[in-house]
């Protein structure tokens, strides 16, 4: 494992890893810590919902 301090979420395997251990097409991140990476999908959903309400994005 890489000791970069960056965490990633793999959407295919639904696993969290430290460092770039998977291909970019399945990887979300980087995140500052494991907990943030574990909640990557919830974070993305919340950001999408906020952007949908923002007139600057629509």
Automatic annotation (TrEMBL):
Superkingdom, taxonomy of origin: Bacteria
Chain segments carrying region Disordered: 1-35
Biased composition range(s): Polar residues: 14-25
Name the record gives this protein: SPOR domain-containing protein
